[in-house]
């Protein structure tokens, strides 16, 4: 079984065969929710039992013993079967509204449709053979066309025609190839095909059965202060729809990585692809909870425990950082702790139900905070330990080499997918809506991480090395004495003491740490440098945080910045870098740069007309509205700045409008700003760079 459809109140499961897929109707499936009293009183459950049973959508009820948490013994709980997944929330809201707020607690309410079915029926939705995939892609410009695209590709074959003709051509290709997966550049394409067919009054089928569903509408959300947009989600019976415009996981890993997580979470591929990393982690935890007889709370209710003022002060800190020494440093070495936070969770047994346990109140295990940690194995280490071990094994296999290209791609995808799960496990503990989270666990992980970093610093400095930067789980050092102790030896000593492997990452010929634009000191996450040829096999540069790594930087400026860094590498001369900068400025002034290389990609946070200031994004939205292009908050807009002095929509041109000019002065400012990031470690600011550009000088040959 690899996919589940809920059609007209029926549940249809799809199982792969050698040549396609077969389907089965599950007539007896009824989703179940749990109801408990906050006080755990069995008598109160008996009294409410008949009222739940009388609800129209409830088909059966029974009182059973389940665990409502990992540290709870089984207790009495009312289980209610409901007619279908569409009525689950309706029943839950009704019961939750009875009595005082919080008097009734609900379980297993907000599980997604396919995932819920797999849990209830204990079915692993991992495909049993390689999935056949049909790729349907249209450019953003074509998808934005009024009435639908006039050109698209199907498995790399270019198709052109009016929207109705393209819809018919896609239907014929789908029916002929019978793919398991429809991989689309935007699932709105599928909705558009069905609209065209409806206008032509013909039955249109892209699934293995007739039907087309919209599972969710488009929405705008805010996460960590950033506005995002989720596209509408669609389903065709018997096939998996992968929308590449609405998937974080597939953008960071690949299909092999996604399928690896399907097997770990039992969240089917279609639902997993559009889920956030936190949602996938939750699914893995929910599956582990089910196996231990623990139900999933609808609303988490784990209050923060009492803390002294001192504990509040000490706990409200993040990971440890060593302020970077601004400048260009030669002979730099980088060391990283392998999956530091997940390994701390596993090695210290940190879990929501083990931290500050009642059975060890007198102990002070967590450094600096005085929290106790129970010795009973926690569920969170049990969940993460296989992920850590499997990723380490995959990385070891990758290092061994000798793989075909397909095998290497599969291994890398799996490693990347697991990496993102491990990255999210720490922050998830501090997330207020986490199903299985706790702020004290989040604080304890940070406390141990700070202790680990300080231990590493002490060993490295005692061994003759100077720490020039350190952040969260990475440390950069240079020799402090003529013959320092070998880093591999020091790393092994640190590993033995802290219980988390400190890996020698890479040697650098040089690394430059960039100062803050405002205020004193170095920027924690802005640096660049050249990895030594002995490690990289060739000249390889590493960039972090500077313009060429920022989403909002156009291709021309990003490429120019990388070229300027290569000039700095060869010459160590700011003047030579400025000479090369002058060449790029000259290209802009002559108008010889292709506008496509000057496109800015910006995420907008408000709809058109809602901005208080006349920003470039506001101008782009006004222009999009003028040409009939709807851009929602959280979506990206692509444009070229054509006249930055103009106050209205004519300040920019959208990429859909094929801009043929640009504001060379504005892009020159962006170039100078990028150059400042390159030269600021050597003491050069924007004013000095501009003076160098304005002065009379002979360009050095080295700049070429």
Short characterization:
With 704 residues, the chain is an alpha+beta fold.
Shape: globular
Strand segment tally: 26
Distance N terminus to C terminus? 60 Å
Content-based structural category? alpha+beta
Number of helices: 22
Strand order of the largest sheet: 17-19-20-18-21-22-23
Detailed description of the structure:
The chain is an alpha+beta fold and 704 residues long. 38% of the residues lie in helices and 21% in strands. It contains 22 helices and 26 strands. The protein has a seven-stranded antiparallel β-sheet with strand order 17-19-20-18-21-22-23. Strands 10-9-8-11-16 form a five-stranded mixed β-sheet. Strands 5-6-4-7 form a four-stranded antiparallel β-sheet, with helices on one face. A hairpin with a 2-residue loop joins strand 19 and strand 20 (474-479). Helix 10 packs across helix 14. The radius of gyration is 29 Å and the shape is globular. The termini are far apart. The model has no long low-confidence stretch (mean pLDDT 91).
List keywords for this structure.
5-stranded mixed β-sheet, 22 helices, 26 strands, globular
Describe the secondary structure blueprint for this structure.
Elements: E1 3-7, E2 10-16, E3 21-25, E4 32-37, H1 42-53, E5 58-66, E6 75-82, H2 88-96, E7 104-107, H3 113-121, E8 133-137, H4 140-143, E9 151-154, E10 157-160, H5 163-177, E11 181-184, H6 188-199, E12 213-216, E13 219-223, E14 226-230, E15 233-235, E16 240-243, H7 248-252, H8 255-265, H9 269-274, H10 277-291, H11 309-315, E17 321-322, E18 327-337, H12 340-348, H13 379-400, H14 405-428, H15 439-462, E19 465-471, E20 474-479, H16 487-498, E21 502-515, E22 522-531, H17 533-536, E23 540-544, H18 555-571, H19 574-590, E24 600-603, H20 616-626, E25 636-641, E26 652-654, H21 664-679, H22 686-694
Parallel strand pairs: 8-11, 11-16
Antiparallel strand pairs: 1-2, 2-3, 4-6, 4-7, 5-6, 8-9, 9-10, 12-15, 13-14, 17-19, 18-20, 18-21, 19-20, 21-22, 22-23, 24-25, 25-26
């Amino acid at each position: 079984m690899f996919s589940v459809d809920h059609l007209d109140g029926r549940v249809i499961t799809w199982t792969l065969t050698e040549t396609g897929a077969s389907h089965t109707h599950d007539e007896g499936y009824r989703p179940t929710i749990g109801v408990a009293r906050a006080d755990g009183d069995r008598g109160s459950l008996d009294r409410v039992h008949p009222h739940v049973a009388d609800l129209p959508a409830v088909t059966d009820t029974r009182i059973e013993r389940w665990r409502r948490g990992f540290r709870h013994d089984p207790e009495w709980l009312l289980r209610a079967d409901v007619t279908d997944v569409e009525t689950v929330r309706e029943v839950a809201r009704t019961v939750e509204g009875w009595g005082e707020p919080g008097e009734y607690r609900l379980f297993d309410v907000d599980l997604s449709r396919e995932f819920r079915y797999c849990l209830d029926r204990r079915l692993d939705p991992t495909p049993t053979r390689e999935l056949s995939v049909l790729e349907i892609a249209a450019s953003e410009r074509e998808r934005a066309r009024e009435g639908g695209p006039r050109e698209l590709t199907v498995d790399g074959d270019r198709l052109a025609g009016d929207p109705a003709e393209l819809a018919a051509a896609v239907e014929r290709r789908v029916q002929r190839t019978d793919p398991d997966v429809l991989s689309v550049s935007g699932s709105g394409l599928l909705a558009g095909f069905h609209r065209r067919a409806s206008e032509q009054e013909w039955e249109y089928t892209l699934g293995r059965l007739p039907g087309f569903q919209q599972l969710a509408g488009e929405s705008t959300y805010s996460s960590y202060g950033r506005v995002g947009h989720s596209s509408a989600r669609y389903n065709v019976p018997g096939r998996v729809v992968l929308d590449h415009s609405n998937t974080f996981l597939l953008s960071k890993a690949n299909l092999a990585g996604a399928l690896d997580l399907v097997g770990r979470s039992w969240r089917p591929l279609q639902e997993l692809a559009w889920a956030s990393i936190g949602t996938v982690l939750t699914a893995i935890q929910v599956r582990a909870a089910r196996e231990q007889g623990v139900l999933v709370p609808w609303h988490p209710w784990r209050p923060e425990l009492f803390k002294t003022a001192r504990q509040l002060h000490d706990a409200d800190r993040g990971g440890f950082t060593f302020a970077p020494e601004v400048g260009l440093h030669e002979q730099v070495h980088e060391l990283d702790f392998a999956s530091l936070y997940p390994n701390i969770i596993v090695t210290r047994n940190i879990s929501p139900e083990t931290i500050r346990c009642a059975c060890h109140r007198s102990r002070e295990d967590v450094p600096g905070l005085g929290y106790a940690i129970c010795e009973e194995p926690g569920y969170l280490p049990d969940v993460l330990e296989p992920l850590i071990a499997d990723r380490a094994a995959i990385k070891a296999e990758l290092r061994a080499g000798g793989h075909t290209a397909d095998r290497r791609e599969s291994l890398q995808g799996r490693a990347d997918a697991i990496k993102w799960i491990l990255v999210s496990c720490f922050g998830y503990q501090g997330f207020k809506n986490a199903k299985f989270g706790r702020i004290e666990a989040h604080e304890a992980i940070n406390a141990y991480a700070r202790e680990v970093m300080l231990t590493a610093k002490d060993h490295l400095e005692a061994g003759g090395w100077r720490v020039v930067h350190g952040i969260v789980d990475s440390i950069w050092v240079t020799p402090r004495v003529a013959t320092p102790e070998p880093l591999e030896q020091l790393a092994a000593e640190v590993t033995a003491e802290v219980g988390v492997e400190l890996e020698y990452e890479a040697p650098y010929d040089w690394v430059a740490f960039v100062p803050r634009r405002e205020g004193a000191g170095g920027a924690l996450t802005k640096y660049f440098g050249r990895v030594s040829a002995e490690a990289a096999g060739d000249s390889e540069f590493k960039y972090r945080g500077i313009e060429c790594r920022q989403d909002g930087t156009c291709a021309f400026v990003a490429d120019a910045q990388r070229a300027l860094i290569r000039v700095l590498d060869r010459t160590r001369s700011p003047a030579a870098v400025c000479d090369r900068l002058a060449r790029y400025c000259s290209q802009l002034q002559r108008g010889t740069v292709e506008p496509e290389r000057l496109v800015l990609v910006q995420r907008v946070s408000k709809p058109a007309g809602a901005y208080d200031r006349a920003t470039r994004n506001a101008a782009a939205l006004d222009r999009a509205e003028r040409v009939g292009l709807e851009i929602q908050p959280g979506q990206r807009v692509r444009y070229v700045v054509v006249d930055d002095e103009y106050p209205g929509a004519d300040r920019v041109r959208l990429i859909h409008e094929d801009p043929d000019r640009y504001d060379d002065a504005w892009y020159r400012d962006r170039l100078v700003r990028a150059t400042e990031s390159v030269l600021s470690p050597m003491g050069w600011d924007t004013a000095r760079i501009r003076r160098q550009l304005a002065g009379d000088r002979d360009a050095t040959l080295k700049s070429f």
